[in-house]
Structure formats: structure tokens, C-alpha cells
Amino acid sequence: MFVAISIDAYAQKLTENEKTVFDEIVYKRKKVGEYETLSKWAIPIRYKIYGDTSSYLVKEVDSFFNLIKKITSYDIKKTDNADEENFTIVFGTKPGDFKEYTLSKAPLEAAASYRKRVTSNSEIKRAHSLINTKKFRDRINIKNAVKKNIIKGLGFENDSKLAPNSIFNTKSDNYKIEDFDIHIISALYLQAIKPGMTRDEVDKILNP
After folding, report:
1. CA separation for the pair 162, 169 (Å, rounded)
2. Contact status, residue 133 vs residue 52, Cβ threshold 8 Å
3. Contacts 24+ apart (CB under 8 A), 56-62
4. In this predicted model, what pLDDT tens digit does every residue of 65-75 receive, in sequence order?
5. Phi and psi dihedrals of 187, rounded to 5?
6. In angstroms, rounded to a whole number, what is the distance separating the alpha carbons of residues 60 and 195?
7. pTM for the full model?
8. CB 84: neighbour CB atoms within 10 A?
9. Residue 117, φ and ψ in degrees, nearest 5
10. Are 123 and 195 in contact (CB under 8 A)?
11. How many C-beta neighbours within 10 Å does residue 44 have?
12. Those residues with Cβ within 8 angstroms of residue 185's Cβ, 6 or more apart along the chain or in another chain
């Protein structure tokens, strides 16, 4: 997908519905009584694939990260160096395939899961995306899960019922990234928006 206009222009043109969904999916309250803040990557992303490396899975991961890089102009690269890797994608077909990659005492039984390491300053420093391909009925649904799991690791961790055909709705069967999704992704990764910002602070940037 070719992103033809600038990132700033995309983000500044959020529609009212896009802005409502943006607010719904990026903010989280760390403790009761605190302001809701957003988290995002503040360091280069270096991703690595483990487990099942079937060509269609590798292609899906690579193409999605390439799209994210194009949308955000962010420093994202695939790596074979485990020391620099900070975004792990694991594909498997049985719970034991994921045991090494999860902090949970029980191995992965669900179709997919994700987790992030976030600093006290709301900077995402590491993410894991675990996908049990056996839990999905076909490749289209697996591809959908790849995108939705990775996007949560990028800071879009909440779901939105206001976006029925969007990547931001886990119940959606849509596996294509539409302009709606692109606008929201580019908005979070504007340089002016910093990790730990509150809704009011971001509104001054997106709604000047």
C-alpha cells in the first residue's frame, strides 16, 4: 500500500469518528485516580520471528511492519541478532511452542496473546506477539490475527466497537488496512506526541 501524503497531513485530518476511536484505543490509566496516558515506542524497533516460519507467515509479518514503517516513518527493521531484538513474533501449533516466550505459568492455550514492557515514562521497550495458528480456521484469519496482535504491541491496546471494520476491533474479520486505520496509526506516531501524554495534551496537537 502506497502512502502518498505526509504523515503530519494524515494525522491532522482525523475525522470526528477517527478521533473518538483514537481516544478509545490508546489511553490507559496506570493507577486509580491518575490521568489516562498513552504509551508508544521511543526506540527503534527490531523484530524477529520464531517457531513456524512458513513463507506466508513471514511475508505477512514483513509486509505489515513495512507498512507501519511507511505510515510512521519510524525506524523498524527485521533482525537475526537476538541481542538487539525487542519485538518478538512467535508462531506455533501447541501450547509448548510458546512456553519459552511467555511469563505466564500456563502455556498459551488461546489463539493469540501479546504483552509489552513499558517504562515508568510510558515508553514501550519490548513486545511479544504469540499466535497459535492451529486455533484459526484459515490463513485469512491468521493474517488478521498477525496484524491485530502486532498493532497492540505498538501501543493500540484497547478495542473499539466504534470501528466495526477496523484492525482496532478484535471481532472484525477485515484483514486489510484501510485509510481509517492509517490515519489513527500515523496520529499516535507523530513526533510531537510523546509517551506519557494525557488526552488534553494530545488534543492540543491533533485539534489545534
Report:
1. 8
2. yes
3. 56/139, 56/143, 57/91, 57/133, 57/142, 57/146, 60/142, 60/143, 60/146, 60/147, 61/89, 61/146, 61/150
4. 999 999 999 99
5. -65, -50
6. 28
7. 0.88
8. 11
9. -105, 115
10. yes
11. 12
12. 68, 71, 72, 151, 154, 156
